Amino acid sequence: MIVKVKAFKSPQFGNLLAYMTNEKKRLFDEKGESFAITHNMKGNNIDKWVLQFKENEQFRNVTRKDSTYLSHEILSWHKDDAKDLTLEKMEQMAREYIQMRNPNGMYVAVPHYDKDHYHIHIAASGVEYRTGKALRLSKTEFGQLKKDIQNYQLQKFPELSKSVVEHGKYEKGKLSEKEFQLKQRTGRETQKEQLIGMLKTCYKKADSKEDFFDMLKKSGLKTYERGGKVSGVIFGETKHRFKGLGYEQKFLDRLDKSANRSRELSEMRGKKDDSKEMKQDKSRDEELEEIRNNEGEKSDELGVGD
Q1: Domain range holding 25?
Q2: Pseudo-torsion of CA 14, 68, 129, 45, nearest 10°?
Q3: Which pTM was predicted?
Q4: In this structure, are 102 and 208 located in the same domain?
Q5: pLDDT tens track for 172-211
Q6: Co-location of 139 and 202 in the same domain
Q7: Per-position b or e across 259-269, b if 16+ CB within 10 A of its CB
Q8: In a domain, 284, yes or no
Q9: How many folded domains does the chain comprise?
Q10: What is the arithmetic mean of pLDDT over 297-305?
């Protein structure tokens, strides 16, 4: 399941709710039925919902210029799971998401169908119901929320196998959820994966940083500089920073240190066999593993701000 969040810094309650309840976009079953989840809300029309969102803002504890008045949150599933996805299942997952998100918030959730895939739009209040506390999520909390709701989906509806996204995990580098879904549909390696593979090969063979850059050029990759340092490569027509691909500056600097260390060890071996020193010298494979571990979770969706 893909989860996206957009924070609104102005009280656009009516605009979002009007879009959500637009019958041209809204999902109906063969009987012409749909659902609208209202949590900590009363009534069944936009005017009443807008009034309640605005009234709840009066309880806000802290008001800033960049305060979040409303967040637009979307749950979506892969189109190949359409045959196994029903309104009942969508509603159950939406209700579970709200409980995991923060049951003290105010929510309106409506199902949509667009471009061959099913999704749910959720309007969430900027602050909790009548407490004034911000309904904020940090990046870490948002990342955990995505994992938790997907785990619920896996346990409750394992048949929705095409909609499983590896939140927080990377295949040969950082893949956005859009790229991940593209790979799921086509079965092809993405451009980013191709690029990561080329970097890995060059890094493993390089004896120094300059050697690494030279190998990249021979592989058809142009490097570019920022602040006087080579900081990335151009693949096709797109610039990619080394850092965004998992190759932080410290790993590039390590190539030169490794080369200097090899020379030192070579000189030492000319005098004596120091096997202990050899064992302490980190192998390139270990460095590559550290790069992969270093990629960590760089979510392409930000947490909800205050």
Answers
A1: 2-167
A2: 10
A3: 0.59
A4: no
A5: 345 565 666 655 555 555 677 778 888 888 888 888 888 8
A6: no
A7: beeeeeeeeee
A8: yes
A9: 2
A10: 39
Q: What pLDDT does 111 receive?
A: 98
Q: Report d(CA 280, CA 144) in Å as an integer.
A: 37
Does residue 149 sit in the same domain as residue 212?
A: no
On whether the CB atoms of residues 191 and 197 are closer than 8 A, the answer is no
Please name the residue that has the structure tokens 């890995």: 200
Structure tokens at 220: 């058809």
Whether residue 26 is contained in a domain is answered as yes
CB atoms within 10 A of CB 230: 17
Name the burial class of residue 187, with classes exposed (0-12), middle (13-18) and buried (19+) by CB atoms within 10 angstroms of its CB. exposed
Q: What percent of the chain has pLDDT above 70?
A: 76
